[in-house]
Design a protein that fits this description.
Number of strands: 4
Helix content: over 70%
Radius of gyration: 23 Å
Structural class: mainly alpha
């Protein structure tokens, strides 16, 4: 019995469980600790935004990391989910469509439990529509087409204010209702005894729960037959097709399932911000999410989470660096541009230091040393 408990497999499982429990406890206590230390709600808000980007990066990792399909228009699915919630949980539709105002005299108050599946489904449908005409494209050509798709969605959102005002154009949609869970509004502080949980902390716990579900789903997909099929297509599509895999359906499933994460994240973003506009879904955001996946480690879920967290939090942390540097130059340097320069420099240095990502998949670490290759060639 003692030998079984001390076996390497049991020790590994015990270590993993210990790390998981310690991480879970740390994540649960983190916002409360920050609140007690008096660092302000701004840092908790940064954590909320980081969790949204982690959800986006997990979805893009299915397309880019698992299936090897370069998608530069992923932010379009984020926009679809955000605008869907904005239309269904704000006075905009009732104010612009008399029929909707007559049908819902008290206004549209669609619950989040209904909007999240709708957002995921609509984003998945858009993902399939994007994937269908690009099945024969690879590499740079696929990237250009997906980039164009993302820009088309943004331009549509920017111009669908005439002749019928659907998206309110560049002005965006305001007065979006916060998420309500079991009668508790996440947009208002929650008082428990003598302790108060601010709105950003309530959103943090809800976003954390959604991200945990997304991580479990991503892990199950990676370990499934479908996940192995994605990796076969990524490594060699011709060989995968020769082995009998239906690469067409496999690619469409990658686009569709990856897009669902973006749709859900968009719903959460709209509720959290209370306002959406086309400028939040620019090409810069798409490239940022791709950078998160590549920086952390393609196809490795823990690495993707690390990359998303670092790139989401780093620009905010560097505000405290760019501000003093701007003051030292008497304002001749723009703090925003300087902050972007620092982020880009950090990314270049990291990729030079770790070209496979900060936390690559274990398979990418198994490389034959040059000495072994030389010895094998000589023998």
């Amino acid at each position: 019995m003692s030998q079984d408990l001390l076996s390497p497999g049991r020790l590994t499982d015990t270590r993993r469980l210990s790390v998981f429990l310690a991480s879970a406890a740390g994540l649960l206590v983190l916002p409360l600790l920050m609140q007690m230390l008096g660092v302000g709600e701004a840092w908790i808000r940064i954590l909320d935004v980081a969790l949204l980007y982690i959800l986006l990066a997990l979805g893009l990792n299915i397309v880019v990391g698992f299936a090897g399909l370069l998608d530069l228009g992923y932010i379009a699915f984020y926009a679809v989910g955000a605008y869907l919630f904005a239309l269904l949980a704000s006075p905009h539709l009732a104010a612009n469509f008399p029929a909707i105002a007559a049908a819902f005299p008290d206004g549209l108050h669609t619950p989040v439990w209904l909007v999240i599946p709708l957002g995921a489904g609509l984003a998945a449908m858009m993902g399939v529509l994007l994937g269908a005409p690009t099945l024969k494209l690879r590499g740079d050509y696929l990237a250009i087409v997906t980039l164009g798709f993302g820009e088309i969605i943004r331009v549509f959102l920017n111009n669908l204010d005439a002749p019928v005002n659907v998206t309110n154009g560049p002005m965006g949609i305001t007065q979006i209702e916060p998420i309500r869970l079991f009668g508790v509004s996440l947009g208002e502080p929650w008082h428990i005894g003598g302790f108060t949980l601010p709105s950003v902390t309530l959103y943090y716990y809800f976003f954390l729960a959604v991200v945990v579900v997304a991580v479990v789903v991503s892990q199950r997909l990676q370990d499934s037959r479908l996940g192995r099929a994605w990796m076969a297509v990524r490594e060699d599509e011709i060989a995968a097709k020769a082995m009998g895999l239906n690469t067409r359906n496999i690619k469409l499933l990658a686009f569709g399932l990856g897009a669902t994460f973006g749709g859900v994240s968009g719903v959460l973003f709209a509720s959290f911000q209370g306002f959406v506009s086309p400028e939040s879904f620019s090409l810069h955001e798409s490239i940022m999410v791709v950078a998160m996946v590549v920086l952390g480690g393609l196809g490795h879920i823990p690495g993707v989470i690390l990359g998303a967290f670092l790139l989401a939090a780093l620009p905010e942390v560097l505000r405290h660096v760019a501000g003093p540097l701007q003051a030292m130059t008497d304002g001749r340097l723009d703090a925003a541009i300087l902050r972007q320069l620092l982020v880009a420099s950090a990314m270049v240095l990291i990729m030079l230091w770790r070209p496979t990502g900060l936390w690559p998949a274990p398979a990418s670490r198994k490389q034959v040393p040059p000495t072994a290759q030389t010895t094998g060639a000589g023998s």
